[in-house]
Amino acid sequence: MGLSQDGITCLVFAARYAHSRNTTAAYVVVDEILRKWDHIPGPDRIQLCKEAKNEATYNFDQWSRLYEKLERE
Length: 73
What we know:
globular, mainly alpha, 0% strand
């Protein structure tokens, strides 16, 4: 199952929306990103992780799942 550029863009936008929300949005977005991880190109993975580290103001334990995954690769 491939992921279109539009799909990747939607994940990036969803992450950006959820970075500053103290809600379950981060959990939902991170789970979806991780489900699609193998279909997200490397540069987009790096972007998602970089923005999670630099922009998230809540739910750090959720966002850290992304950059921990990237570090294990």
